DNA sequence: GTAATTTTGACAAATTCATTCAAAACAGAA
DNA sequence: TTCTGTTTTGAATGAATTTGTCAAAATTAC
């Protein structure tokens, strides 16, 4: 249940790479990557895709991690957080079945 | 499974009230309310609370409707939408248990 | 200690978002 | 059709949020 930040920090440290290296690959300032890893900034979709490629892990898994982080952030400090997530699931399922 | 917009439009039309009346209560331009009802704009939390009071319905129900709309919007056109919602649920549950 | 790396925060730029307003579109009644 | 009230649209503005840059401070490793 790691956040995106925790995940990529672990991967980076496993390979003993400095922020600089990964940041260069993503074409962003290392300060931003530092913040992303610690959850102070959100990555954008493009960056997530690049990160998956860089670390050679499944793109979809990282996207799920990233998206779910955003969702958690969105419902934070709402009492109805869980309920809202469940209803959102229903709505997505419903839309999917309808779109066919 | 109505969206917030559909819900409040129905309520307003049941009572045969013009946009003007409800908009005045919310202290916003009627153009905005029109857009909120048709899902072209997001309401903010405060407006949702006021709407619940105005129509005398449960605040939490309307908040769930509003929040879940935002979540659906956030994951729209992502293949991993459902998965992300499920993982987000797990994360929220986990955070809740930890925060005690 | 030095050197490399990471974190922080101030600032600027860019982008997104909300709001206002007036005109256009629409609906119903006469 | 015209009159009246309502709703929708879109352009323009302003506010707020996000995003990136940079350099200095803090931390870590040697």
Descriptive overview:
The structure is a homodimer of 100-residue chains. The first copy, chain A, has helices at residues 4-14, 19-26, 30-37, 45-55, 59-75, 81-98. The relative contact order of chain A is 0.11. In chain A, helix 2 (19-26) packs across helix 3 (30-37). In chain A, 73% of the residues lie in helices and 0% in strands. The mean pLDDT of chain A is 92. The N and C termini of chain A lie far apart (33 Å). Chain A has 6 helices and no strands. Chain A is elongated. The interface between A and B is medium-sized, with 32 and 32 residues. Chain A binds a DNA duplex (30 and 30 nucleotides) through residues 18-20, 28-32, 34-35, 38, 40-42, 44.
Task: Considering the chains and any ligands shown, give keywords for the structure.
elongated; homodimer; mainly alpha; DNA-binding
Percent of residues in helices of chain A: over 70%
Mean pLDDT score of chain A: 92
Contiguous helical run count of chain A:
6
Low-confidence stretches of chain A: none
Strand fraction of chain A = under 5%
Q: Main β-sheet of chain A: number of strands, strand sense, barrel status?
A: none
Number of strands of chain A: 0
Order of secondary-structure elements of chain A: HHHHHH
- Structural class estimated from helices and strands of chain A: mainly alpha
N- and C-termini, Cα separation of chain A:
33 Å
Oligomer: homodimer
Q: Outline of this structure?
A:
The structure is a homodimer of 100-residue chains. Chain A has 100 residues and is mainly α. Helices cover 73% and strands 0% of the residues of chain A.
């Amino acid at each position: 249940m790691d956040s995106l930040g925790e995940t990529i920090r672990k991967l980076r440290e496993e390979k003993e790479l400095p922020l600089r290296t990964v940041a260069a690959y993503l074409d962003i300032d290392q300060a931003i990557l530092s913040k992303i890893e610690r959850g102070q900034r959100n990555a954008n979709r493009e960056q997530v895709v690049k990160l998956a490629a860089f670390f050679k892990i499944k793109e979809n898994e990282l996207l799920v991690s990233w998206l779910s982080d955003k969702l958690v952030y969105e419902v934070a400090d709402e009492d109805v957080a869980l309920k809202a997530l469940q209803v959102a699931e229903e709505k997505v399922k419903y839309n999917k079945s309808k779109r066919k």
